[in-house]
Amino acid sequence: MRETTISEEQQVKVAATDNPVHKLILERWSARSFSDRPIEQPEIDTIFEAASWAPSSMNEQPWMYIYATKGTPTFDKMAETLMPGNQPWAKNASVLIASLARKNHANNGMANKYNWYDVGSANQNLLLQAASVGILGHVMGGFHRDKAEALLQLPDEIELVCLIALGYPAPADDLEEPFRSRELTPRNRNPLSAFVFQNNLK
Ligand SMILES: Cc1cc2nc3c(=O)[nH]c(=O)nc-3n(C[C@H](O)[C@H](O)[C@H](O)COP(=O)(O)O)c2cc1C
User: Sheet harboring 136-140: ordered strands across?
Assistant: First the structure.
C-alpha cells in the first residue's frame, strides 16, 4: 500500500474505532469535496481491476461499469441525472461511474439472486483500492433512475445499481452549505453490541 497524506482537516473523517481495524478501512470515507486533479488512466484501470477481484456467487462477476471523466459530454449528462443533494458536489468529481448488475446467470438464464450483493462487494473493493492511493469515492443512490437509464441505454438484462463519484479530496471550504458542514462531521457507526450476537440462541 502506498503512503497517502490526509490533511489535518480530513482527520475528522478517519474512523475512530474500538478495535485495531486496518488503516485502509479507517481512511476510506464518502468525500464530497473534490480537487481538479485528474485521475490518471493507470489508476482508473487499477481501481476497476481491484473491483473484479471481489468474490461473487459462482464466480459469475455480474458487475459492469460505465464511466466518464470530467470535461466530457457523458460526464455532464451523468451529473445531470443526480438528485439536488448530490449534483452540486458530485459534478466536481474527476470520474463518475455507473455501477451496473447483470440480472441473470450466464449458464442458465435464471435470475441471479446475489447480483447486487456481488456488485456491492466489487464496489467496496473499488473504493478501498482508490482510498489506498488517496482517491476517495462516494456511492450515490440519489439519482433519477429514468433519466440515468435512458442516458446509459441499458439492455433489459442489465440494471443500474448506483452511481459513484471519484476524485482526489479538496478542502471542505470549497463546498457550499450544507455540504461543507457534512464534510467536517465525524463519521460514526453502531457499536458491536447492536449488531453482533454470540451464542444468543436458546
Ligand atoms: C447504496 C448507497 C447509496 C448511497 N447514496 C448516497 C446519496 O445519494 N448521497 C450521499 O450523499 N451519500 C450516499 N451514500 C453514502 C452514505 O451516506 C455513506 O456511505 C454513509 O453515510 C457512511 O459514510 P462513510 O461512507 O463516509 O463512512 C450512499 C451509500 C450507499 C452504499
Answer: 63-69, 95-102, 158-167, 136-140
